[in-house]
Amino acid sequence: MGAEFWAAIWGALVGSVAGGIISAVLQYSAAKNSKRDQAEAELERRRALATSLMLKIGIIASHLSIIERALATAKEAAIAAGASELTWQWLQSPGNIPAAITFAIDEIGLLYSLGDPPIFAAVLLCDERHNGVLDHLAIYAKKRAELLDMLASPGMDSLTVDRKIDLNLLIAQLQRIVLTEREASQKALVAFKNELAKPPLAIEAPH
How far apart are CA 54 and CA 131, in angstroms? Predict the structure, then answer.
């Protein structure tokens, strides 16, 4: 066999190996780019979930602050008129009760993945506690409307004593609950914002 034959064999072999190496490099590069794209997509997904959860906690804190201010304003008016405390005569029924807020499963999963038990505990039930306050308001509004209907009917006044007492008890409970939940939601919001500012999420929360 001549040198030309072996040169052809070796040339084909080298070309095949070189082609295989180039193909492997291209595949590795594509896989690496794919993994990087997937990692970036996952990070953006987590940031979106974190931002959504942060906004929900902010809305919860805002709702509770508004309710607390409404209670305080009504109490000030009652005391200015000579009352010793806030009663049903002074606390009007809310015109529009905000909609309930519910944390999504993925948002709770993101919260758990942060690996901070105190923040997890502080945030986890914020939505349910907020919704409990709204339910309390709805019950008060319903019972107050029923009382007013009874008072408008002749001869019903004597039957409303227990209902008035019940309404005043609801108000006292509402004042305690709102104060507690408003403070808790604001602390949870601050703690969550601080956690999200850390890498890798590094989300700059609105002020």
Answer: 17
Q: Up-side HSE of residue 16: CA atoms within 13 Å toward CB?
A: 6
- Asked if 93 contacts 174 with a C-beta cutoff of 8 angstroms, the reply is no
What are the mean pLDDT values of the chain's consecutive 10-residue runs (207 residues total)?
49 52 53 70 91 94 94 94 94 90 96 94 96 96 94 82 94 96 97 91 69
In the chain, alpha helices (H)? 3-80, 105-113, 117-124, 126-151, 161-196
pTM of the predicted model as reported, rounded to 2 decimal places: 0.80
**How far, CA to CA in Å, does 164 sit from each of 78, 88, 148?**
16, 7, 10
**Which has the closest alpha carbon to 88: 18, 8, 30, 174?**
174
